[in-house]
Amino acid sequence: MATPTSIRADKGVTASRKADHIRINVEEDVASKGVSSGFERYRFQHVALPELRLDDVDTSSSLFGYRLKAPILISCMTGGVPEAEGINTVLARTAEAYGFALGLGSARVLLERPDVLSSFEVRNMAPSVPILANIGAVQLNKGVGVEECRRIVDLLGADALVLHLNPLQEALQPEGDTDFSDLLPKIEQLCRELEVPVVAKEIGWGIAPDLVARLLGVGVSAIDVAGAGGTSWSEVERHRMSSPVRMRVAAAFAGWGIPTAECLVEARRVAPEALIFASGGIQNGIDAAKAIALGADVAGLAGPFLRAASESEGSAYELADELSQVIKTAMFATGNRTVPGLRQTSRLIADGQSAAIVHLRRLDYQTRHALDFVDITDDVLGVVRDCGVHEGLVHISSHHTTAAIRINENEPLLIEDFREFLKRTVPAGDYQHNDLDRRLNIPADEPRNGHAHIQHLLLSSNDSVPISGGRVQLGPWQRIFLIELDTARERQVTVQVLGR
Ligand SMILES: Cc1cc2nc3c(=O)[nH]c(=O)nc-3n(C[C@H](O)[C@H](O)[C@H](O)COP(=O)(O)O)c2cc1C
């Protein structure tokens, strides 16, 4: 077995940037300054009676067709220099032994120098876990196309290709590639044509929610938010600089970026169903468990694994063991038997979050005719999304006695059936309510709508749906309708969101 190369020994010898990166990450203080991952702002609420056996806690989850033993990714780091070979060997053996997904470092060098393949070649050491190849998205502007990406994936036997988005790092590097224009269409083409899933990640400054949505919109299969609070690449690059001005420019960004926990919550808000990884500043198993509880499918660590692997294979195994055990124990002590259970848990409390959120919004509609079934689901989901309630209830209430709120399926023939049912059960006709001569204080335009009131009695003015894990818990066929029982009218609906 290849042992990790001693990183300290050859500081002055290797001139390569990749070797510099490894050395600096191991030897120097490259942590971000003045910005944190944000996980410290959350705590788990302890469950004194979990009602399950520790042995039954199952930390496994699935990724790209593989079964992970724990929802952990060793994030993309290295390859392409002799120093990388030992490190990737240790990381691959660790990933295989502990059932973690494994990312490799940028493989652009492989296109230029096929002789460095051995520093990336880990497929046979980690046959039962997903391996993620990696390249900078900016390379799509530098002549790398689908064919080159396919070659990288094939050479490495990878299960997915990670595109890293690192504009700030490139801007700080003297040799950086800084043309980030018009990349989205190229990413779209790659997603369309490459045979394996494409993942988009940052490298430690985070991905804002609108960009998460745009990347998913062009076909990216997963997002790693890779937020701030861990390894700071401006700090890494600062250690490679000699000009005092450039060093101060780099230092200005030590506190840059979106905290990982914040990116993650926002990414999950805009993409409730997407595959989302959280990395950047995840230091231990509790942070990883918090990331899952905030909605991540997988939690990624880079710096901590690099430091462990560069020490010894034993240290990397110990870190993996510790992470696995802490996640399992945290699941037990929060009463969660499975990873999907942890993802939905209501036992993660944000600091100062004890006060409940009560959010009210009025929605206005113009109905078009009697028995108009207006599907207001997306409007209601929008209200819930905007107020950021993670756990709670949404209540939808009509202001009227002839316009109902009901949940059912939006299938045109079924809606015709509903209309027929209501007309047959309570037809328009002679009702005492329509005898305007016998009623007092009626407005001039009072309609003869006794049937609409009686239909409304069969339906309801309101409905409620639980919110859990930030998601309104509607079944796949359930839609929320405002149902007009009178003729075309202006209608108001109040949506109230309660929770935290
Ligand atoms: C030595 C080293 C090399 C890295 N190289 C890459 C890379 O080639 N591609 C990439 O997408 N990210 C790379 N990263 C970034 C990590 O994948 C990760 O996003 C970042 O370090 C934040 O995670 P952390 O706080 O756990 O270190 C590298 C990180 C380290 C420490």
Tally of DSSP helical segments: 17
Estimate the helix proportion, in percent.
25-40%
CATH superfamily of the largest domain: Aldolase class I
* Bound ligand species: flavin mononucleotide
Any guess at the CATH architecture of the largest domain? Alpha-Beta Barrel
Low-confidence stretches: 1-15
Number of separate strands = 20
CA-based shape: elongated
The domain tally reads 2
Q: What does the radius of gyration come to?
A: 28 Å
The average pLDDT value, as a whole number, equals 94
The first-level CATH class of the largest domain is given as: Alpha Beta
CATH topology of the largest domain: TIM Barrel
SS-based class: alpha/beta
Largest sheet: 8 strands, parallel, barrel
Oligomer: single chain
State the end-to-end distance.
51 Å
Describe, in plain words, how this protein is organized in 3D.
By secondary structure, this protein is an alpha/beta fold. The protein has two domains: 334 residues, Aldolase class I (TIM Barrel); 143 residues, Sandwich (Jelly Rolls), CATH 2.60.120.460. It has an eight-stranded parallel beta barrel with strand order 4-5-6-7-8-9-10-11, surrounded by six helices. Strands 13-20-15-17-18 form a five-stranded antiparallel β-sheet, with helices on one face. The protein has a three-stranded antiparallel β-sheet with strand order 14-19-16, covered by helices on one side. The structure holds flavin mononucleotide (FMN). Flavin mononucleotide (FMN) binds next to helix 1, strand 5, strand 7 and helix 12.
Provide the descriptors you would attach to this structure in a database record.
single chain, 500 residues, alpha/beta, TIM Barrel, 8-stranded parallel beta barrel, 5-stranded antiparallel sheet, 17 helices, 20 strands, 34% helix, 20% strand, disordered N terminus
